[in-house]
Amino acid sequence: MSLHAQKNSKQSPNKEAETTLNKEEQKLLSYIDANLPRAIELLKESVNINSGTLNIEGVKKVGALYAKEFEAAGLQTHWVSMPDSIKRAGHLVAMTPMAKNAQGNKKTKGKKLFLIGHLDTVFEPDMPENPFTMLNDSTATGQGANDMKGGDVVIIMALQALNAQGLLKDAAITAYLTGDEEHAGYPREVSRADFIETAKQSEIALAFEGANGLNKVATARRGASGWQLNVTAKTGHSSGVFTENAGYGAIYEAARIVNTFRETLSTEKYLTFNPGVFIGGSDMQYDDAKSFGSTIGKTNIIAPSTVVIGDLRFLTEEQKNKARAVMSNIVNNNNLTGARAKITFQDGIPSMAPTEGNDRILNIISGVTVDMGLGATVAGDPGSRGAGDISYIAAYVDCIDGLGASGRGAHAVGET
Q1: Are 358 and 382 spatial neighbours (Cβ–Cβ below 8 Å)?
Q2: Measured CA distances, 357 to 311, 349, 362, 397 (Å)
Q3: How deeply is 107 buried, as exposed, middle or buried, from its count of CB atoms within 10 A (0-12, 13-18, 19+)?
Q4: Do 200 and 193 meet the contact criterion of CB atoms below 8 Å apart?
Q5: C-beta of residue 227 within 8 angstroms of C-beta of residue 326
Q6: Three-class SS of residue 164?
Q7: Considering the entire predicted model, what is its pTM?
Q8: Is the Cβ–Cβ distance between 115 and 95 less than 8 Å?
Q9: For position 235, what pLDDT does the model report?
Q10: In sequence order, what are the residues at sequence separation of 6 or more whose Cβ sits closer than 8 angstroms to the Cβ of residue 332?
Q11: What is the dihedral of CA 378, 137, 371, 113, to 10 degrees?
Q12: Residue % of the chain over a pLDDT of 90
């Protein structure tokens, strides 16, 4: 794709196939068409390499495969390793010579672009296999075909097409493919440190996560964070429950709090909070690292403890902070008799908030698709996407996401 100045000419509704591309741009499309079989073979080869986030060798193998393709487009590649304590493979970085020379904020002729992909998938080696299979002439299935090896191949083929026409000589472009997008290593300050610092030296970030249809991109994505509710209460024989002396127990209080969250906040646009773990009873144990818990639960005992673990998704930092304040107020007030509650919050992935700069990039991309005869490109619903790597850098550069392959069923067997 060539990001060029948007043209003012409007396309007739009766001439949807008509294009206004110049000869240079037409040559780019011809290259893509001619090399489509090779692109499919590259996608097949990478999909058939298991690269679940925790499969370090598999992630590195996909990185090595893609590195050769970037180098074929004239980019210089290097691998960003992670400390052993992070337990992640690392990241692949590919840079045009101009981008490498431009590090340190040297001026370039055009905008400095930062292209984002990821090498890992949610499919670990012990999960059901789903080898690459063409279902028809335009649809394939396979582990990570959509999320997001299809998008990675889009990046590679676009750069190879540009290079074939000699259009990368003065281009400052960095492609950054992380190895743990699906389950980023902790602490994030380490696993995303180089990613963030490299992005800060660019001006525009384009991410190639799966597309939601041909003419929709993401100008905003919600962030994700976590919360944990711990409730303790008097315990005793269940015959005394609801009395002033015995109280209500921890499970009732936790249920009241979570339901009040729903009643108070569930109608706010772009805000969601999902309790994924809810455990209560006697002698309760919970392993946060494994997201696994156990308890002794006798019906004739008032539950002395309960833990609820959930996520909180938001469009802006302001929305996140307001929601946290409301949740804290619900937890700290009007507790049921005999119960005490505490909530803690954990930051995760920040949001990619909507900005005027993001909208300006959208207008340029829309100009490209209009010129290609595909109609205008519009912003998709931010609520339809979760958090992604682009969110870590959205505060520093203008961003667009959703430029990758179009498909369905991401994160499940049969993904297309």
Answers
A1: no
A2: 29, 21, 9, 8
A3: exposed
A4: no
A5: no
A6: helix
A7: 0.84
A8: no
A9: 94
A10: 341
A11: 70
A12: 82
The continuous run of DSSP H or E covering 241 comes out as: none
At 357-410, the pLDDT tens digits run: 999 999 999 999 999 999 999 999 988 877 789 999 999 999 999 999 999 998
Q: Is the pLDDT of residue 15 over 80?
A: no
pLDDT-wise least confident of 60-64, 100-104, 133-137, 202-206: 100-104
User: Residue 289, Cβ neighbours under 10 Å: how many?
Assistant: 6
For the chain, the first-to-last Cα distance in angstroms comes to 23
Angle at 5 between CA 202 and CA 98, to 5 degrees: 35
CA 188 to chain CA centroid, nearest Å: 14
Cα 225 from Cα 172, distance rounded (Å): 34
Mean pLDDT of the region 126-155: 95
Cα–Cα distances (Å) from 328 to 46, 180, 270, in that order, read: 46, 32, 20
Distance, in Å, from the CA atom of 347 to the CA atom of 225, rounded to the nearest integer, reads 5
Residue 162 Cα distances to 2, 32, 60, 70, 157, angstroms: 8, 10, 26, 12, 9
Q: Residue 134: CB partners within 8 Å, gap ≥ 6?
A: 40, 140
- DSSP 8-state secondary structure symbol assigned to residue 106: -
Q: How would DSSP label each residue in 319-377?
A: HHHHHHHHHHHHHHSSPPTTEEEEEEEEEEEPPB---HHHHHHHHHHHHHHHHTTS---
Among residues 26, 120, 112, 31, the alpha carbon closest in space to that of 82 is found at 120
Query: 22 — phi, psi (to 5°)?
Result: -80, 175
The tokens 């440190």 sit on which residue? 193
**Cβ distance 184 to 346 under 8 Å?**
no
Note the residue count of the chain.
Answer: 416
Residues 330-350 have a mean pLDDT of 95
Q: Which residue has the tokens 């696994």?
A: 292
Distance, in Å, from the CA atom of 383 to the CA atom of 392, rounded to the nearest integer, reads 18
Q: Is the dihedral of CA 8, 9, 13, 17 positive or negative?
A: negative
Structure tokens at 361: 């990039």
Strand partners, 278: 308
**Mean pLDDT, range 231-237, rounded to an integer:** 95
Give the separation between CA 113 and CA 173, rounded to whole angstroms: 5
